[in-house]
Write the structure tokens for this entry.
Amino acid sequence: MKVPSLIKRNVALFSLSQSFTGAGMQFSYGFGPLMVMALTGSASLAGLSVGLVGLSRFLVAYPMGKVTDSYGRKPGIFLGLALALVGCIVLGFSMIFMSPLMFVVGLLAFGMGMNGSQQMRVGVTDMFPPQMRARSLGYLAMGSLFGLLVSPSMVSLAGWLGQRIGQDPLGLPWFFLPVLIIFGMVVVSFVNPDPKEIGMNLEKYWPDYKPLARKQTMAAGGKFSAMELLKNPSMRLAILSNCAGTGNMSIVMVLTSLVLHHHGHSLTAIAISHTFHSAGMFAFTIPLGRLADRFGRSNVMFPGVAVSLMGAGFVAFTSDILTVTLGTFLVGIGWAAANVAATAFIADHAPTEVRGRAIGVNDSFAAGVTVFAAFTTGPLIEMFGMQAAGFTAMLLAAVPFVLRLVSGPMR
């Protein structure tokens, strides 16, 4: 089926916006643990940054879905990006004033904003028919990949500038991000009509579209019940698989920074390693989406979780920068496969009027697992070493396979 030019244009604009804003999450995951250690002097709190990002996602995912279901996708995206912009500035000043409180407030605001702007994913799924929905998420993710390419350069510039003005290079990159976020907001303003409008009238925008006979878990009409969504065993399995990939990755992102820092690698080297991780998250989303559209969501979802499990082992049980980077790269690919397939599965079963909230439920559960993983990683490392945290990441990734044996294949 040929993609209409209007849809191509809107997806390109969303992807371009992602390219401007994608570096920010890289900083929060890559340098957040190091900022916490610099501010508190405690390795046991190293997971605080990832935990705060997860908590922010938990706080905002469902409410933002309700906003976009009620008022359209664009207002929610604008609100998220504006909040992220404020968070960036507060995070930069937290390192200037060496204030843990400012760090917590800034990262919560930044995380809520960036996770709120992820309603772009909902908007993209709105604009495509079910048989092309998974690959549409890949088109959006490519923007994040291009944005991440500038991250190491920004870190190098921050290091150079920090030496000359006597400021901590961990804080300076945050002051560069607001300019990129503003560009991202401008780009989103050109998306028209609102993706929700397109999703409710697919046949108007896709002349060749013929609705497929798909059973939707949620009834159309705007009424939403999370309990009704979770009654479906396949839906629970999709959400759990996404949670497993996300929880595994949350631990690994903390471990990657700490392992490489422990072995004396520079901030630029750590940024490059996290760039490979992010490349795994985004570079292969289009082919992964095509596979999920062609062969089914579960046939991409479960292999993805298995790959993330293997990658966590590389990060936890090796120390060489190449093998650690390979491991974090594999975790990124595994998460991408699980996330794309699970999101597409949920979008398939939720009508446009409630899709923001349905995907918000999925994101809320994933955020809850992220909070658990992040806040247990530091104490695990402190008490039992880095390998214990890595083993926990592997156990999280194994959970969906146990549930699938109990509940059977997805439908």
The domain at 5-189+224-406 is CATH 1.20.1250.20 (Growth Hormone; Chain: A;).
